[in-house]
Amino acid sequence: MSLSDIIIQKIHLDGPISFRDFMEMALYYPGLGYYTSEKDKIGKKGDYYTSPNLTPAFGELLGVQLEEMWRILGEKEFTVVEMGAGTGLLSMDVLRYLKGNPELSQDLDYCIVEKSPALRKEQQERLGENARWYSSLDELSGMTGCVFSNELVDAFPVHQVVMEEGLMEVFVDHKDGFVEVLKLASDELNDYFAELGVVLPQGYRTEVNLDAVKWVHELGEILEKGFVITIDYGYPSSELYQEYRNRGTLMCYYRHTVNENPYGHPGEQDITSHVNFSALCHWGGKNGLELCGFTDQAHFMMGLGIDEYLKKLQEKDPVNYWKKMLPIKTLMMGMGETFKVLIQKKGVECNSGLSCLKLQSHLNI
User: In terms of C-beta density within 10 A (0-12 exposed, 13-18 middle, 19 or more buried), how is residue 246 classed?
Assistant: First the structure.
């Protein structure tokens, strides 16, 4: 039975399902969801590229920041948790840099939280015994170190809402194809906007990522002392809910093409929405995570020494310099402003600032 048939069967048995539940099944249904199936997802044979697919520079610079955090935390036992490691390429680049510091290497416990069996298998083949794997965050309570993610939160299943006389939630029914129906939104969805101080105009459609709120709560629970780095594409509330985004930000990626139809190819295409960084910051603060800073990927990399990295690259391999430099240019120019970086901390009295935040990006959260 195909995933479409399974979703249709569920709707016929239980009635219309929330868009959030449809998206969760499309992405995470065991063995048939987009992220749980065996199909290639990332790279030339997949549906999109991520930063690690382009160059190891991004992972190595991230390693520079993790090394600095280890020093800030007293150069003691240091746990790094990567949430959703994809193919493991970023993990490999980060680990290569961190293993270059013998003292840090002795203190390092590199953990990956991955719920996709197919991706976990690929990661284990690539990383071997250099990492430990977990299925959920709650297995890592009481940790000191850093939790980081790259393009994770945008793939959390989201509720879709439309403002009419009151806030309405989008549900999915099936009548000669998937169709949308509206129902009164829950108190939890209404409270989300009230807490953020957001008032949606009539006819406005957007997404609500309650799974991200739950995730931030879990981060606050398991992190005893350290940092959280969230790298993704999105905006603060002030930008996310502009009038020209009144149809929402939901996007689908299928064989390197982009579309706005989440009901086509269930389980075969990625479905994402832009991250609300104001929400991560707000609920982070309610769960013990203080804001360190908010920047874009370009300024993040500049603060960590991308200029020096390129200089060393040219000295080390002048013949292939331009070939290796062009993907880095893509990270800085094409993706540099689109991707944002949110840094939060807990139990850290460091006031000197982090290198990745030393250059102002003029972003407000």
Answer: middle
